[in-house]
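Dear colleague,

Thank you for sharing your sequence with our group. We've completed the structure prediction you requested, and as agreed, I am returning the results in plain text so they can be pasted directly into your records. Please verify that the sequence below matches your submission; if there's any discrepancy, let me know and we will rerun it promptly.
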Amino acid sequence: SSQYTAEMDEWCQDFAGQIRELHTDAYDTWKDPQAPVRLLKLITTIPADKLEHCKLDMPYTHFDRTFGLVPSLPLFAGHGSTLRSLYLAHVPFLPANEFPALELLVMYEMHHVAPRNDTQPWTLDDLTRFLRGCPRLEELYICRIYIQRRVAHTLPDPRPRTVQLPRLRYLALDVYKEPSILLAICDITSRLQIPPTCHQYFTPIRLQGADSIEALLSRVVKEQPITSMRLDFTERNLLQLASNSGTISMFPSLAKRDGDT
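Please find the predicted structure tokens below.
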């Protein structure tokens, strides 16, 4: 069925306590205006006592109509102690939950909605607070999210703005359409305290304006002793730096200069 009917919702509610995997993919074309309301009620109220894997891919308009513009929203009745992987796509909020067992987090095209009245979209401060509730995180993928629109609220937050992720093994940042690649990378990496063994990926790198490959390297390499370098300009542009433990991979897309062939 293309509609989330009341009968389907009742059936899901009956089995909510047994669900180990929850995948929701929805479009903004439902004819029944109550269908998205029922689905949102499901994901915010089911107890999720056994839930281990969850994917939420829903247009932000569903949430905006039901909850308004909020930076964070409790899911699964505030629970989620068994959740190990979470994929968020297009939703405009961050979970207000703590996920102590979470190992994998994917954030994809989470829309930035302009502030209005007294409401605000989530910022990097909100992201930092959310990640503090995920101490076992091993993989973090931030894809097609406009980082520099999420730097700060109007008023400064007195709480610390960094988070320790001692188990992080993979960090991937897609700096798609950022006006300054360097600032976007700095905005994210300056908030994360990660082990030197973490493999970092930055793509696509389109340097322009004040950005330069030298400034980028000096920012991401930091104090790590680099022991090897890989340059691959065959089928893809790859710059990879490796230390004795971790790697930093970038995929630069350098604009041609006048006279280049």
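Summary note from our side: The helical segments are 6-14, 34-45, 60-67, 124-132, 181-189, 213-221.

Kind regards,
the structure core
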